[in-house]
Design goal:
Chain lengths: ~475, ~120
């Protein structure tokens, strides 16, 4: 149809590359106008994929075409705006078609040598848009047909045959063993079926798509294992195992946390115990020190006591042995002033006694016997000297009192029943000396002092 | 030595150390025997001791100096009268106690004692 357009109607048919022309000043003739209108109407019909009515068809054809070859799209039109000096864009046409450039060469040659200019590709067909157009067309037709059928089916009564079909097809049908009903039978039904089938096109589309997808899957190479792996279905046993594993993990976690906590507590406790132990050790150390000191003090005290005891024992021993000197010494060391005092008094008494004895002997008229050659002192009677023996100034009591010296060596014969001991012999000697020197005496021990006291009492009371 | 008088002034005060059971009895007896034997002092000795020790003294005399004539003056008055009879015979030692000395002083005064020994 576009080919059938008159060249005069080319004005709106501007090639798309050139800029859109401004409103043309070229007027249409009446014939052209009517032709244009008819063409527009026909176009509308075509758009809706509907058959174009005949009159419009005829009208759209218009005048017979001139013998001019239809100008190609890329052939320059000298009357176009670019070349029209009167148009506004004349000198400013920046676009120069390649053919213009090669016009000279084309004219020179016979046209056989075609210059291949790869940049002049014909504008190709847009496949996508074509497809879309086709789809739209088809959809429009289907819709139209459905509408048609809807209208038709309501009018056609049942049992009427449909429109005749080409004989070829009817022959095919009858050649098979199965006898199909003729194509034209059951017209209404057929129309209904057709209508329903058309209305199901969407569903069909989906079905086809699904089939294709699955078919693709079937043809695809198994490049990815993941897609073909069979996933193990989780069974109850698996769930139980998972649960058990989870429980175990939880328990483990808890146990670890508890262990940590216990460890922490234990560290604290041990530290505390260690501290207590250290303190106790310190305390015991100090206690031991104190005890050691106390012990030391005790021991020194005991030793002091022992020393004192020893001294007193020695003193007593010295007393036993009549060691006056040592006794006095020990007495002094023992710092017992009472005993020292007593001893001093005893000495003084002895002196007075000696004097008294001398006096008495003088009164008695006894011839003073010369002092024996042997010096007499208490050692004769078994006692030991207490003084130094150098002090001869004072009257020696023993010498005075026991002027007459008689040794007793043998036990009297009539004394039977035993033997006298050494000290007893000495005592005997002393008593004999008493007798010789006309003295009285007391042989006594500690009890004797009590006895002396008693006698003194008696004497004072003039009983004796 | 005067009877009835006891001169403390002539006392020999030196303490002859004599602890317990060192035999003062024995020493006394030995003195008496010595005097009798060596000094020929036969004269009666008066020994006054506590009553409790009288028996002991008697035994000791019997043991150590059996040859001495010792009379223990004690007992009831009747007994003592008999002893007094016995005293008319010569004897060495009269062993008695304080009480009897005091009681029978007039009787005992008759003898002239050479030595008196007082025990305790």
């Amino acid at each position: 149809m576009p080919n059938g357009k008159p060249p005069s109607a080319d004005a709106p048919n501007v090639p798309p590359m050139s800029p859109s022309p401004p409103i043309t000043t070229v007027p249409f003739t009446d014939h052209q106008l009517s032709t244009l209108k008819a063409q527009m109407a026909a176009w509308k019909f075509i758009q809706h994929a509907a058959p174009v009515p005949e009159n419009i068809h005829h009208a759209a054809r218009g005048l017979p075409e001139p013998a001019q070859p239809p100008p190609g799209r890329f052939l320059e039109d000298p009357e176009s705006l670019e070349h029209n000096p009167k148009s506004k864009i004349y000198p400013f046409n920046a676009y120069m078609t390649p053919t213009e450039r090669f016009k000279d060469t084309l004219k020179d040659g016979s046209g056989k040598q075609r210059v291949l200019m790869p940049t002049i590709f014909p504008e190709g067909l847009d496949a996508v848009s074509i497809l879309q157009e086709r789809r739209k067309f088809i959809d429009a037709r289907i819709e139209q047909r459905i509408k048609e059928l809807g209208q038709l089916s309501s009018t056609i009564p049942e049992g009427v045959d449909g429109p005749p079909v080409a004989p070829n097809e009817s022959k095919k049908a009858s050649s098979s063993k199965v006898t199909f009903p003729s194509q034209t039978a059951n017209g209404k039904l057929r129309l209904l079926i057709e209508q329903k089938g058309l209305m199901l096109r969407h569903k069909q589309r989906q079905l086809r798509q699904a089939v294709v997808e699955k078919m693709i899957l079937g043809t695809v190479l198994p490049t990815e294992r993941k897609d073909f792996r069979r996933i193990r279905k989780p069974t109850l046993r698996d769930a139980r195992l998972t649960e058990a594993a989870e429980r175990k993990q939880r328990l483990e976690r808890e146990r670890r946390a508890k262990q940590k906590h216990l460890e922490y507590l234990r560290v604290i406790c041990t530290h505390g115990a260690k501290m207590i132990l250290d303190k106790r050790n310190n305390l015991s150390k100090i206690q031991r020190l104190g005890k050691g000191i106390a012990k030391f003090h005790n021991e020194t005290e005991k030793e002091e006591q022992k020393r004192i005891e020893r001294v007193s024992k020695e003193r007593l021993r010295a007393l036993k042995n009549d060691d006056e000197e040592a006794y006095l010494k020990l007495i002094d060391t023992a710092k017992d002033t009472r005993i020292t005092h007593l001893l001093k008094q005893t000495d003084s008494y002895l002196d007075s006694l000696a004097q008294a004895v001398v006096q008495q002997q003088a009164e008695a008229g006894r011839p003073l016997a010369p002092i024996d050659d042997e010096p007499l002192d208490e050692t004769t009677f078994g006692a030991s000297r207490m003084d130094d023996g150098e002090d001869k100034s004072k009257v020696d009591y023993y010498r005075v009192a026991h002027r007459i010296n008689e040794k007793v060596t043998a036990q009297p014969k009539i004394l039977t029943g035993g033997t006298l001991k050494e000290y007893q012999m000495k005592g005997l000697q002393w008593m004999v000396s008493l007798y010789n020197n006309r003295l009285n005496g007391i042989l006594a021990d500690e009890m004797g002092w009590v006895f002396l006291f008693m006698l003194t009492m008696l004497r004072t009371k003039s009983i004796l | 030595m005067r009877w009835g008088g006891f001169s403390f002034l002539c006392l020999l005060c030196s303490v002859l150390r004599a602890f317990f059971s060192l035999g003062k009895t024995i020493q006394t007896i030995s003195l008496i025997t010595y005097l009798i034997e060596r000094k020929l002092e036969q004269g009666p000795y008066l020994v006054i001791v506590p009553l409790s020790t009288l028996t002991n003294w008697t035994l000791e005399f019997a043991k150590w100096a059996p040859s001495l004539v010792v009379i223990s003056y004690k007992g009831l008055p009747q007994v003592r009268r008999n002893l007094q009879m016995q005293l008319r015979n010569p004897f060495h030692v009269l062993l008695t106690t304080y009480e009897y000395i005091i009681k029978d002083r007039p009787i005992l005064c008759k003898w002239r004692w050479t030595h008196m020994i007082i025990g305790e």
